[in-house]
Design brief:
The structure is a single chain. This protein is of the alpha/beta class. 42% of the residues lie in helices and 21% in strands. Helix 1 packs across helix 3.
Length: 141
């Protein structure tokens, strides 16, 4: 647990994949015994080449991220979302945002989207290598 924080905090990287939905369920199951809060983070950014959107507005990208996050939370928990689980859309590249968030987290949980048995995806690999707290990598069930 981060000493500056009174209650443990679990951050879960959510991208809507089966693995991230499994990660949400695991985080919720750990939250009770650890008396922890769970923050489900969906990371979003403006895709390269969309410079015009920076002038016009990026609300559509953020809205899509919020919708994706709500769908993932519904897939993980249905109508019975645990009270300790909150969703949070965060702007930025997933690996960078999650690693920075890990500075104040007790645990970071990410899904595994890599290919093969031993290969992690780029985000989970970066988190395992650079996070400032323990990282749990979850395979889709």
């Amino acid at each position: 647990m981060d000493a500056s924080q009174g209650r443990p905090r679990i951050i879960v990287g959510v991208d809507g994949s089966d693995a991230s939905i499994a990660a949400l369920r695991i985080a919720a199951s750990l939250a009770g015994p650890l008396d922890a809060s769970v923050e489900a983070w969906t990371c979003w950014d403006v895709p390269p080449g969309f410079g015009l959107y920076l002038v016009v507005g990026v609300e559509g990208f953020e809205y899509a991220a919020k919708q994706s996050l709500e769908q993932a939370l519904a897939a993980a928990f249905g109508e019975e979302r645990p009270i300790q689980v909150r969703g949070r859309p965060v702007r930025g590249k997933a690996a960078d945002v999650l690693i920075e968030g890990s500075r104040s987290a007790s645990l970071l949980i990410v899904g595994r989207r890599g290919r093969g048995i031993l290969v992690l995806g780029s985000v989970s690999s970066a988190c395992v290598s650079h996070a400032h707290c323990p990282v749990l990598v979850v395979h889709a069930s």
